[in-house]
Amino acid sequence: MFLTGDIHAKSLGLLAPELVLVAVSLLILVLDLVWKERDSSRLGWISIGGLALTSFLLLLAFGRSGGPEHETAFALVTIDRFGIFFKLFTCAALAVVIFFVMQDRRERKSHIGEYYFLLLGAAIGIFFMVGTNNLLLLVLGLELLSLASYSLAGFHKAERRSAEAAMKYVIFGGLSAGVMVYGISLLYGLTGTLDLRVMAGVAQGEGVTRSLAQAITESPGAVAIAMVMILGGFSYKMSVAPFHFWAPDVYEGAPTPVTTFLAVGSKAAGFGALLRFLAVLFQDGGAAEAVRAYGLQVGSLLALLAAVTMTIGNLAAMRQESVKRMLAYSSVAHAGYLLVGVAAMTSEGFEAAMFYLVAYYLMNLGAFGVLLYFSGETGEETFDSLDGLGYKAPLISVAMVVFLISLTGLPPMIGFLGKWKLIQAAMDPALDGRLLWLVICLVLNSVVSLYYYLRVAKHLFLKQPAERSVRPAPALTGLLVVLAVLNVLLLAYARPLVEWTSASFDLILR
Amino acid sequence: MESNWLWLIPGLPFMGSVICGALHFLTLRARERNPEAKGPAALAGPIAAGLVGLAFVLTTVAFSAIRGEDRTLLQSAPWNWIPVDGHTVAGVAMVVDRLSAAMGLVVTGVGFLIHVYATGYMHGDRGYAKFFAYLNLFVAMMLVLILSSSIVGTFVGWEGVGLCSYLLIGFWYDKQDGWPAEAGQKAFIMNRIGDASFLLGMFLLFKNFGAFDYASINAAAEATHAAGASTGQLALAAALLFGGACGKSAQLPLFTWLPDAMAGPTPVSALIHAATMVTSGIYLIIRLNPLYALAPQVMYGVAVVGALTAFIAGSSALVQRDLKGVLAYSTVSQLGYMFLALGSGAWVAALFHVITHAFFKALLFLGAGSVIHGMHEEQDMHKMGGLRRYMPRTFITFLAGAGALSGLPLLSGFFSKDEILGHTFALGGTWYLLWLVGVGTAALTAYYTWRMVALTFFGPERFDAKALHPHESPAVMTLPLVVLALLAVAGGLLGLPHIFHVPHLLHHWLEPVTHAGDAIRFGEHAPHLAAGTEWMLLGFGALIALYFADRGFHAHKSGLAADEAFQARGGALARTLNNAWGIDRFYTRGVVATVKLAAVFIAVVIDQLGIDGAVNALGRGARRTGESLRRFADGSIAGYGLWMGAGAAVLVLVLTWMGV
Predict the structure, then answer these.
(1) Of A239, A272, A406, B275, which is the most exposed, with the fewest CB atoms less than 10 Å away?
(2) According to the model, what pLDDT value does residue B660 have?
(3) Is residue A403 classed exposed, middle or buried when 0-12, 13-18 and 19+ CB atoms within 10 A define those classes?
(4) Comparing C-alpha atoms, which of A373, A386, A392, A403 is closest to residue A473?
(5) What pLDDT is recorded for position A39?
(6) B654, A304 in Cβ contact below 8 A?
(7) In angstroms, rounded to a whole number, what is the distance separating the alpha carbons of residues B354 and B277?
(8) Cβ burial, residue B532 (10 Å; 0-12/13-18/19+)
(9) What pairing do the DSSP bridges indicate for beta strands B73-75 and B95-97?
(10) Residues 6 or more apart in contact with residue B111 via CB below 8 angstroms
(11) Are B379 and B324 in contact (CB under 8 A)?
């Protein structure tokens, strides 16, 4: 591939957000060495500042893009609104996670610079993962994210739980990545290309041996195996059954801010990559009819996964003694809900899933933040440790109730609108009621989830007030209250958000 | 031109309500520290009364602005409450037109007097500030009801006054074995039944006309009439709205809450349950007069309901021992007259009676309150007697009110009642029957009114004067009485019969509001009485009033003998009258008991056994599955890997199977 100097410069310009992120992460590493401070929040604020700058550049890019033709950097990184949506999402999630690290009272704050460095590194991985139509770069981004995540999960290496979590994560991560790469290699072998648009037949490319449509008719078995293996890789990132086994153990063992990142940032990245993979490969108006039909089959498969995932997640969450583990299973269940929108295999469904991710961000960050606070105070994560604390920390506990109700999907919280849009997408007349059973499954699962979510509220408010007192945390409380207010407010004024997510889905020709 | 200051008219009392509420909480806080502390509660009375007074002044200003012929209404900018696709569907503006100005003056004027009175009456009550918060909120809501440009706004006020009524009836919820609390609930539930009917009527109107605001509804009704289109659904809507009016204005079959509403403090009975809130049903029908005029059959129903209510309640008032009980049944009965007037198309006569009734009934209630206050919370007339010596000012003013209520010649009630009966008579046919019921009720009214006066103020003292020390009330309480007494005496000037050859002020005033309804109902030829007939009816009414007033007074002025004799002889009749013809008991035993039975059935069999049972069984199942799933996650990596592999294999099979 020949690139002239001009194209180099242009590509580098397009990659400015990524470059800023790299620069900030390196700066953090250097400053950590120079300052040698153990308990400074300066590094955290610098990270957040870097994320803010990145977000600003992303917003500029968002404004520039939006047409049917997307610019690409080095012919690999696609600059489209869809990718920018997920990059912004990542920045927003990461800023809160870094704030959580600063507020974490159980964090001993050694090697704190590396903590931030790894988080920012994970973000860079996500950026490439969600921003490319090339399967090779996708795998590289995913691996970068995974490597950073492994280290983060085991960040408290002296703690047995943390170390075990990291170990399990590495093993499953390796396994899943291997499976996924194998699936990709099968696809490459069948078609001769790694570019999704070329594969789908909507763009010209070099070295194509066979179109995907041809491959599907000629060797359906190989394509099926490849698809399942690739979906397995995504499922692992999204903690979708049966690739979710690692999640509860790792979520529980990892430091709470890291758990938050895995549950929100990493999962959203998985969804971003999956949505792009499915949309570009199967949904483009220019794709062959056989390919689009095959996409509907994959959708049915995902519907099955969605039902199994949400049911397993919810039922297992019911009997947990640890709030953190409950939230881990809850996040598995939410991956199932999100798949409902994906399984519809329509633009509306994908937009609904993206909207749900925003809602999920607002409610899950909040719930983990509250957990962070209480576990920092009590040193425990069990339901019983929360007994009566609602009266000691009323503001934060009321915020928690808001998050829980939002997670359940009841009005007047944004979680309700999120589920509403998923159901709306699944009940699209074009689908002919094929997903009705899945909608019923989703609604029943929501009922089940009410049980274990409200258990937290019960322990906070309906148990005898605790003897112990808790220290106030004004900054954290402030952030959580803002999140809680947003949960309500964005239901009342949802339109801009809905329109923004809708405008962000620009992957395909409709 | 838009007059946005009109929002201030309900806004001021609303502000007062908020302030008084705050004062109440401050007082509670002060009491937390020192149970005897007074706190700032005492400020509430003057603030509340002052703000209602200001609202009265503003209403007067608005009133004088629409006196001329060129301008008959003021309107504020609308508040676009419920926009649908950018259109204003339920915009609410404040409107002062001829009708709402008249009602507004009554509400704020009488309301102001009652507020002043209440500062004395409620003195020393633990909930002094709270009382004024509710009372001010009531006035604000009542003004919203009256001034709203759309039926939606009226409904907001309608519900608001219902709420305040509930709060104020149950104000002393912890006294008298919980009677006030139960009475409040009764009022609320009865009103809810009416409100459901109101809502249905409102939406039916919207379905037909696509609008909520009165101007459009009335214009559409006129257009319907002009086009000669079918009025079936509109008649149903009118009937449903009348159902709402039956609840709020205590008509058959929903009137039973009003006698119990007397559990509230007396100023509340005077303001809400006599002068203002209970007349909102009448207001609503006058406001929608073109709609009702379209449906003569509904109007006939209104008249029948009104006449029957008037008679049943009037006869029940004959035997009550509770001073406020007499007044309560009397109020129901007088409201019946107003509906009789509406039914016969006499919109102006109905409003006329609303106004005079507001004067004399508020006066009577406040007088009764003064008596009760002076007698240290005694309400039983059998334990009173001879009070004219102890409470001269209350006595004199009470006489004025009683005279007006019983329709003694030249007092306000005489003219308004006569106008209603005259209109009914003029319609002829079966209306003669309703007229007869009306005249009979007038006789009953005169009798029970003067029985009440005799038992309370004349005859031997049936209490221990030395122990009880009955006393006259303070000036803040008697001054409003005097003002109201003057109004009750002179209120008739608003609508003198045309045979007197003076202009009927109210008729002229309301012309812009009622001409549409008159045109639809009667066309060019409104029924008209010959001057001779009218003189005769007037004289006949005067004779009836005088004769039965005299009978009532003389039978009871010497003591309880007449009452006791009637109880002894009357037997079943006495019991029936005492219980308002057994309607209340029928509700308690028939309706309430059945509903409770059904509720128990649903609660125990359907809910606990059926639904709960099923849910609990499912829950147990889910928990057991959860338990086994939890054991599944044992942390073993080999186990996890196995499941992942197996799962992937199944997925491949499914995908290939789907392709086949």
Answers:
(1) A272
(2) 65
(3) buried
(4) A373
(5) 60
(6) yes
(7) 11
(8) exposed
(9) antiparallel
(10) B52, B56, B139, B142, B271, B275, B276
(11) yes
Chain B residues lying within 8 Å of A317, measured CB to CB:
626
ipTM: 0.84
DSSP one-letter code for B81: E
Q: Are strands B79-84 and B87-92 parallel, antiparallel or unpaired?
A: antiparallel
pLDDT in tens, A322-358: 999 999 999 999 999 999 999 999 999 999 999 999 9
What is the reported pLDDT for B389? 85
Residue type at B241? L
- Residues of chain A found within 8 Å of residue B627, distances taken between Cβ atoms: 319
DSSP-based helix, strand, coil % in chain A, nearest 5 = 75, 0, 20
Helix (H) or strand (E) holding B89: strand B87-92
Confidence at B379, pLDDT banded by 50, 70, 90: confident
Whether residue A71 has pLDDT greater than 80: yes
With 80 as the cut, is the pLDDT of residue A467 above it?
Answer: no
Task: Say if residues B340 and B422 touch (Cβ distance below 8 Å).
Answer: no
- Ranking B154-158, B231-235, B443-447 by mean pLDDT, the lowest is B231-235
pLDDT bracket for residue A510 (50, 70, 90): low
B257 sits in the region (left: phi over 0; alpha: psi -120 to 50; else beta) called alpha
pLDDT of residue A1: 47
Q: B238-252: per-residue pLDDT in tens?
A: 999 999 999 899 888
Rounded distance between C-alpha atoms, residue B220 and residue B211, angstroms: 9
Which residues of chain B make contact with A175, given a CB cutoff of 8 A?
641, 644
Cα–Cα distance for residue pair A211/A222, rounded to 1 Å: 14
Q: What pLDDT shows up at residue B32? A: 81
Q: Which of B226, B213, B339 lies closest to B281, judged by CA?
A: B339
> How many residues make up chain B in this entry?
660
Cα–Cα distance between B110 and A32 in angstroms, integer? 78
Does B630 sit within 8 Å of A243, measured CB to CB? no
**Contacts (Cβ under 8 Å, ≥6 apart) of B80:** B88, B91
Neighboring chain B residues of A290 at a CB cutoff of 8 Å: none
Contact call for residues A87 and A276 (beta carbons, < 8 A) = no
Residues facing residue B442 across a β-bridge:
none
pLDDT at residue A95 above 80? yes
DSSP state of A405: H
> From CA B646, how far away is CA B628, in angstroms rounded?
19
Residue whose pair of structure tokens reads 């005898």 in the numeric block: A464
Structure tokens at A39: 């308990």
Q: Which of A319, A320, A325, A329 to mutate to test the interface with B (most CBs of B within 10 A)?
A: A319
Separation CA B461–CA B453 (nearest Å): 14
In tens, the pLDDT along A146-186 reads 999 999 998 888 888 888 888 889 998 999 999 999 999 99
Contact B313, B336 (CB under 8 A): yes
The candidate with the shortest Cα–Cα distance to A423, out of A367, A341, A301, is A341
Tell me how far the alpha carbon of residue A442 is from its chain's centroid.
Answer: 20
Question: Which tokens belong to B556?
Answer: 């009871």
Phi, psi of B75 (to 5 degrees): -140, 140
As a whole number, mean pLDDT of residues B90-106 equals 88
Residue in the structure block whose two tokens are 């979710």: A244
The rounded mean pLDDT for chain A is 90
Chain A residues contacting B, CB < 8 Å?
168, 171-172, 175, 179, 216, 220-221, 224-225, 227-229, 231-232, 241-243, 245-246, 248-249, 294, 297-298, 300-301, 304-305, 312, 315-320, 448, 451
Query: pLDDT exceeding 70 applies to what percent of chain B?
Result: 98
| Cross-chain Cβ contact B640/A297 below 8 Å | no
